[in-house]
Amino acid sequence: MEKADLDIAILGLGTAVPPYRIDQADTARRLTEALSDKPDSARWARRIFKQCGVESRYTCEPNLLEAAVDCRYFPQTSAADAPSTAERMRIYKRESVPLALTAARQALSDGGVDAADVTHLITVSCTGQFLPGMDAALVQQMGLAPTVTRIPLNFLGCAAGLKAVCLARQIVSSTTGANVLIVCVELCTLHIQPSGDRESLFAASFFGDGASACVVGAAGPAHRAIFQLGKEHSVLLPDCADEMVWELGNYGFDLYLSPQIPKLIGDLIPAEVERLCGDHKPALWAIHPGGRGIVESLQTRFELTDEQVAPSLGVLRDYGNVSSATILFVLEAIRNQLRENGSERASGIALAFGPGLTAEMIEISYVPTIVGQEQIAGGAYA
Questions:
Q1: Is residue 100 a part of any domain in this protein?
Q2: Which residues form the Chalcone/stilbene synthase N-terminal domain (predicted)?
Q3: How does pLDDT run along the chain (382 residues), one tens digit per residue?
Q4: d(CA 14, CA 23)
């Protein structure tokens, strides 16, 4: 089969979360206790924790589950006692690689791809850095070829996971026999700030930790597709540079998210989707749940059903926003939804947003496998 006849696709998916589960209601209670001397902040915290669409998240930091008086990340903590950026990066280095390995191995197994057949490795993270990096650790611990092409995408924010998928598609389209392993790891909760200001409390309300991975390659007799990948589109939205800001501070990374982001995305994204899809209205919508308001804004603008946005809101509810890793959680949720419904082939779009404001999007097509008269998810037509 000539390369031109092969479909470029996501062949396998994998996800992983750390062992410590953050219950939203319990965290709101403990945080309110920590803000007992700041009643206005306490009321704001209760409201935003209740309204943000998250019920549970996961963290690599067990201290975040302790009583308010013992939690070093909570507002009553003095600056001298709060974890420094250096300490948070040590935790990141220790905890990120095991999560990355779990997600990556799942993706390879799901796609039926051997580690030895991986030609390119794209590692993605914006919540921590160290050298030699996660890419080197994965090569050594997974048995990838030492000559594998390593491409780290660091500090690009929530859109970076989908940017990696688009980049992988370009690699496979231009490189015969390429199999691209993408691994995203984000430990967002390490950057919870010991502050009672609204920006810090908002960021603390819905970010979670986790890892996701996928393999992008050519679907054919050897490998079946989960989602075929079509055209892609990337855009830096105008006059939005100050709406989402992520900077290094002395006590982790400081995040600012403008309350105008959902409206801006709702106003500006429809034209960009039309540039990619034309008059065709996608059936599948893999929306990165950067926040509940973003998903609801796009649901209103595109007149989407509750079923179409259920995977995105479900991931937000159960895992929070896991930054760059989240979009692969959403694609996995869509696959599960389609499998349960016994769905036939369906086309759609994946969208993610990050600082800039940057929007990344790509056409996707879910392709079930036909086995006799039965249909099962996760493959191309045999």
A1: no
A2: 9-218
A3: 334 445 999 999 999 999 999 999 999 999 999 998 898 999 988 999 999 999 999 999 999 999 999 999 998 766 678 999 999 999 999 999 999 999 999 999 999 999 999 999 999 999 999 999 999 999 999 999 999 999 999 999 999 999 999 999 999 999 999 999 999 999 999 999 988 888 889 889 999 999 999 999 999 877 888 999 999 999 999 999 999 988 888 888 988 888 999 999 999 999 999 999 998 889 999 999 999 999 999 999 999 999 999 999 999 999 999 999 999 999 999 999 999 999 999 999 999 999 999 999 999 999 986 443 334 444 332 2
A4: 24
How far lies 49's CA from each of 53, 63, 216, 256, in Å?
8, 19, 36, 17
Asked if 366 and 346 count as a contact pair (C-beta separation under 8 A), the reply is yes
Alpha carbons 36 and 34: distance in angstroms, whole number: 6
Nearest CA among 221, 191, 213 for reference residue 204 = 191
pTM (2 d.p.): 0.93
Cβ neighbours for 32, distance < 8 A, ≥ 6 positions apart: 42, 45, 46
What is the CATH classification number for the domain harbouring 265? 3.40.47.10
CB neighbour list of residue 61: distance below 8 Å, 6 or more residues apart:
20, 73, 91, 189, 190
Q: How many domains is the chain partitioned into structurally?
A: 1
CA 211 – CA 196 distance, rounded (Å): 29
Per the structure, the complete domain to which residue 293 belongs is given by 227-366
Q: Which two tokens stand for residue 339?
A: 């499998």
Distance CA 18, CA 98 (A): 9
Catalytic pick from 71, 158, 166, 188? Answer: 158
DSSP calls for 210-224:
EEEEEEEEEESSS--
235 within domain boundaries = yes
CB-CB neighbours of 209 under 10 Å:
31
- Quick check: is 179 in a domain? no
Q: How far apart are the first and last CA of the chain?
A: 14
> How many CA within 13 A on the CB side of residue 216?
28
- Report yes or no on 266 lying in a domain: yes
